[in-house]
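Usage

Read records sequentially. Each one opens with the input sequence:
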Amino acid sequence: MTSAPAGDGPGETAAPGRVLGLDLGDARVGVAISDPERRVAVPHGTIRVGQPPGELKAVAALVHDLGVAVVVVGHPRSMSGASGPRAQQAEAFAEALGSIVGVPVELQDERLSTVEAERALREAGVTGARRRRVVDQSAATVILGAWLDAHR
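and closes with the structure output:
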């Protein structure tokens, strides 16, 4: 579910510019950003869940401040492709976000993104508490990278 289509298919995104990627979690929302040409995705930090001004307002501020043209929200489907409660939460978040940001909001399948992010961090020697602090933004980077690859 998206609030507004970003294009009709890969490579047909409506507006040029940066793309913001989000990995929704219970404690943190991982954030990643692309370059304006949409070649690479890099981590951009995290937003603490449940703290003022709230996740939706915090993301809306990032969209405005960074000149974002599209927001991509991780869509946590099961391995069978079914949508469970977490996928429905992501759909509701994307819908609500789309109503306040004024740019297209798309869902991106995020199956195994956290596993891939954990593996990359382990291989880079990031361990323990440091890894727990950055895994959400690394997962957002994986999600955004997959979206960018699908839209080249």
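Summary fields computed downstream for this record:
- Residues 1-12 have pLDDT under 50 and may be disordered.
- The two ends are 21 Å apart (CA to CA).
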